[in-house]
Amino acid sequence: MLEQQLINGLTLGLIYALIAVGYTMVYGVIQLINFAHGEIYMLGAFFCVTFITAAGMPFYVAILMAIICCMLCGILLDIIAYRPLRKAPRLAALITAIGMSIFLQNVALIIWGSRSRPFPQGALPPFFREKALVMGDISLTWLQLFIFAVAIIMMLGLYLTINKTRIGTAMRALAQNKTAASLMGINVNYVISFTFALGSAMGAVAGILVSVYYNTLYPTMGYTAGVKAFAAAVLGGIGSVPGAMVGGVVLGVAEALGAGYVSSLYRDGVAYAVMIAVIIFRPSGILGRSVVDKA
Amino acid sequence: MNIGKSLILLIVAAVLTYPLVPQSSDYIIHVMTLAMVYMILAMGLNIVPGFCGLLDLGYVGFYGIGAYTAGLLTIHYDMSFWVIVPLAALNGALWGALLGAPTLRLTGDYFAIVTFGFSELVVLFLTNEIWLTRGPLGLPGIQPITVNLTWLNEAWYFQFYDKTPNFYVVALLVGLVFFIMRRMEDSRLGRAWYAIREDPLAAASCGVNILNYKVIAFAISAAIGAVGGCFYARWSMFLSPDMFKFWESFLVLCMVVLGGLGNIKGALLGAVILVCLGEVLREVLTSLGLPPETRFMAYGLIMVLIMRFKPSGFFPAIASSGRSNPLLLDLQKRLAARNAPKDEARDAAA
Lengths: 295, 350
Known about the structure:
The complex is a heterodimer of chains A (about 300) and B (about 350).
Chain A: H1 2-30, H2 37-53, H3 59-82, H4 90-112, E1 131-135, E2 138-141, H5 142-164, H6 166-176, H7 178-183, H8 188-214, H9 221-236, H10 241-262, H11 267-281
Antiparallel strand pairs in A: 1-2
Helix pairs in contact in A: 1-5, 1-8, 1-9, 1-10, 2-3, 2-4, 2-8, 2-9, 3-8, 5-6, 5-8, 6-8, 9-10, 9-11, 10-11
Chain B: H1 3-17, H2 26-51, H3 59-77, H4 81-103, H5 108-128, H6 130-133, E1 146-148, E2 157-159, H7 163-185, H8 188-198, H9 200-205, H10 210-236, H11 246-259, H12 264-287, H13 295-309, H14 318-324, H15 326-349
Antiparallel strand pairs in B: 1-2
Helix pairs in contact in B: 2-7, 2-10, 2-11, 2-12, 3-4, 3-5, 3-10, 4-10, 8-10, 11-12, 11-13
């Protein structure tokens, strides 16, 4: 039983980690909690389903198209909403982020309706629901293996992008000191847009994986997932990409164990409680920098 | 008294006498009452982001705490509304202080997210603790507000099932909260809050104990939210956890931002505008065949546009405190008088 809970928690945790990475990268670069990130995740799922049902695309092509659309959405979000406020007080940017989140959510509500819908099963590879591994009471489906593989490959790719490429170096420079980075000839706005695109791609993948895993998608799905992923980012230490990955997995496992052993009614509460506890007792998270106000 | 001021007084007087007019419509009284409930909330929330510059995304949590405190005390102990109001306010302040004391030392973003988590936990608690709150079934059968004056006259026992008396009760509460806010704004407390908002480092250097003042602000704000919830419980006579979702926090924040962060009158006006807009949108959207929840799209857009083009709202905050302060006005006048000859000389030289 415990092992099964751990596997379910790990699946969920890897998905949280994918979303959390988007929060943490944007926070690292422009110190903004991008509340609308949860909506990008929701859009990813809806784009994918729309491409499958309306355009008749195969599953993997639809995923790619959805990722591209979400990257564009992320870039547009930055250009339209956040770029004009770079010099504004942080409160203004934060309120704008919440406003955009609610705006996008309601646009989706108008376009796709408020009812939750199933993921078109016909488009999925048929082996997804089959058991890949059965050991006593524990079972692992191919879908879970697929989620593990995709999440780990994406995060590995992200890690390499940030640490081994030119643009990744620029992102890290920006996170340290924006002025100095621009003096070194880094195009600040370009790098920020790239960060949004990268984060949105990860978010879109997470959205698609969740909607396949739970076989459901609805316009408000970005809300809870967004908050939980943010909690994961905080848990790992906001601004730190490896931290977000660790935080996501820890949170997913904690949630699965909490739901299994304490009370399934407070399933969502675990994330909030963990988040509040981390912020109170160790605001820098597991792997983060210190964030307490100097004043 | 200038024309603007007398106009405002006239409007207030007209609104207050409206329910007494025989042809008055129940619907309009209902909307006005609702607008006044939101006025209380907007004034209360205004303290935290407006005066102190901290984003509070969980205000509805305190509103919910106040409402359920009132509802449960009424159902189980049959207490009078006038006893419950201070009790609910104290309960709100208690939770505000408990949440604020450990978290207010954090940077603004973290604080915002903690308040958000708190309000979600409140909703989860209200939904799941069925033995106390009946969970998603809601809490029906809350008695309306009563006024018990039987110690003066045997016949003077009033129960406010009607819309009109409730309207006057909430008007009284709005007046009370408005008065308290105005007094606080110009007090030592208000000045400390403004100082923290403008520059925490400078405020600390001048001997302002930042954490204490922030916790006080948060507790007072929570208490006012709870008072709003208290009235709401006795007015609607039914409570359910769905009423205290994040949307409500967002709506109240939108009111405060629209009116201008830190401006009390702006918060009042923001509440009126958004409640009216909500009613209009409800009609328009249903006639377009859209679910009424999509009106939040308009709220989201309003927030984004205001932050982009009018970040200090429609009624910037400096006006209220600065321009009514006689000392500052006097100083301004003297400075103008001293600079006038210089300006003339410069003009002549040019």
